[in-house]
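Question (not urgent): is this output format expected?
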Amino acid sequence: MAEVEIGIGRNARVAYGLDAVGIVPSRRTRDPRDVSLAWEIDAYRFELPLVAAAADAVTSPATAIALGRLGGLGVVHVEGLWTRYEEPAPLIAELTELGDVKGPAAASARLRELYAVPVDPELIGRRLSELREAGVTVAAALRPQKVRALCPHVLAAGADLLVIHGTAVSAEHQSRQTEPLNLKRFIGELDIPVLVGGCASFSTALHLMRTGAAGVIVGVGSGLGDRTRETLGVGVPLATAIADAAGARMRYLDESGGRYVHVVGYGDLRTGGDVAKAIACGADAVMVDAVLAGAQDAPGQGGIWPMNVLSANLPGGGWAPVETSAAPATLEQIVTGSGAPGGSTSANLAGGLRAAMATTGYATLKEFQKAEIMVTAGRWPGL
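Got this back:
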């Protein structure tokens, strides 16, 4: 564990983001057609290790279905606009117009007004039923503080996977004001697998694994317009956070007698190279947001915002225009490169990952997790 002295009596760990590492080619290469990008969690198999973030600007029921049919997983946020309004699309269009005309501050203010409307339990059932009827895996997300109130409606709707996601989730939340959610007891009583996060350290990942979670989401302070680092000073560079969680997975594998918990990396992942480096650091899959929010058929309609705008104490972030090229790609083009204009491969997440694995000689994601990685020259702190 590398540490540096930042002052008399105070040391700090050296940590790295994905841009600071590179994957080292092995002694062999492979035909890309022989490379498998598939992964499984519990009884569910996915042909692509791509999870669309549970954020309204990224995942609607329609985009969750589209990604599911491409081989990935879309997660619908049960506290989002689709469970508060019958037709949220015109309201999102209003946000985009406000942002374009009056600026992000005006759009952010309106955004918070839209989320003040209560969640409609009937809409939870209807939205999740859309996914089930389409034949894709039904994944629903909740914040930890809303699990008790809304999880019964999620279960009644027949969800296949539950995602408990917040800015920073721990297995031991303490409060004198309310009774904390006992994650271990709660997960133990469920009949469906649970993904829980975010987390960013070895110890937190290990504790979350001990709750019985099927997977942990790794990443705090990076992602869709998130301002956690700016407002709280909390966050860990993603390469180090994933590697720490992968280390916790190995520890838990030993202590549990062979129970494997999946690690899902979540951060500012925009290219196939980013995805490849996250998996080489130890992730089983990645959760992506901003790059999908930039699709021409994204539900955010040209805007992005993090779901921590739901926080009553300190809303983190707001509406912002999404960064796109002059000719935005579709969701399918971003994910698979199919039909991308001009033969562009920059947004082909699956193709980039497949090519990286073939170039470095790995046939499966599990093998690729063992790839040699190096710190890129010039990225060492202080150089």
